[in-house]
Write a structure and sequence with these properties.
single chain, 260 residues, alpha/beta, six-stranded mixed beta sheet, 10 helices, 14 strands, 36% helix
Length: 260
């Protein structure tokens, strides 16, 4: 029996457009939460599932990812892991991680991948045994996070890192349901991308019926997400930036999205 046979991942809406995520192993009883936009919604999800929370992983310090952390930790006794850069900002951290560190949460070995740009402390969490990652506010479905604390070159480097380190069959979870707006913008960058056209239509149908567009797959993002595709010659050509570096192309795409 493998971890994939005993794992259930439960995703649920929080706040306005955030997602909560719980990863549960039925054999050990381990339950891992990723980010805590609000405690009440997590406690309700745990009660509905009959799960006891054992660990909490934090991606970055923004309020809409940690404002429920203190209450949830107090009510569950869960052990909290987060970025070393957040020590002074997130007081509930029990253990901190740097880029490339591995931690154990029950049967899960989880890799911390530093992906700064949106914030300097941003960590993406990768569960190799179940081919799942949570990329916080770095990589979104068909998009990427705004660059607040880093710079655009840093964000591009982080997206490149995720492209290298996460296998194509990795299920990608992230912080927000932004996919439909991202799809509409992506079509302005690559209107001739047939895979993107098909995906945008699928996303529109999913949202019209009230469904969630997450998780996504790394392979789908590589084929359709313009922010991940900044190194493709076809994208540079479409922007009139033939021969320019991938970082320059990414910066142009991010600037256009910021001004959209």
């Amino acid at each position: 029996m493998t971890l994939s046979d005993t794992t259930e991942i439960h995703q649920f809406p929080c706040l306005n457009d955030n997602f909560g995520v719980l990863v549960h192993d039925s054999e050990s009883g381990t339950t891992v939460a990723i980010d805590v936009p609000e405690a009440m919604t997590y406690e309700k999800a745990l009660a509905e599932k009959g799960w006891n929370l054992t660990h909490i992983l934090i991606t970055h310090h923004h309020w809409d990812h940690v404002q429920g952390l203190g209450e949830l930790k107090q009510n569950t006794g869960a052990t909290v892991y987060g970025p070393a850069r957040s020590r002074q900002k997130i007081l509930e951290l029990d253990r901190t991680v740097e880029d490339g560190d591995h931690i154990k949460c029950g049967p899960y070995e989880i890799k911390a991948i530093a992906t700064p740009g949106h914030t300097l402390d941003q960590i993406s969490w990768y569960f190799p045994a179940i081919r799942m990652a949570h990329t916080g506010d770095t990589l979104f479905s068909l998009g990427c996070g705004r660059v607040f604390e880093g710079d655009k070159e840093m964000m591009w480097s982080s997206l490149e890192k995720l492209s290298r380190e996460l296998p194509d069959d990795t299920a990608i979870y992230c912080g927000h349901e932004y996919t439909q707006a991202n799809a509409n913008f992506a079509l302005t960058i690559e209107p001739g991308n047939a895979d993107l056209q098909a995906r945008a239509e699928e996303v529109a149908q999913t949202r019209a019926s009230g469904g969630a567009t997450l998780p996504t797959l790394m392979s789908r993002e590589k084929a359709t997400n313009p922010f991940l595709r900044a190194g493709e010659a076809s994208v540079a050509d479409a922007l009139g930036m033939t021969g320019r570096s991938a970082a320059e192309v990414f910066a142009e795409i991010r600037t256009r999205k910021d001004n959209a």
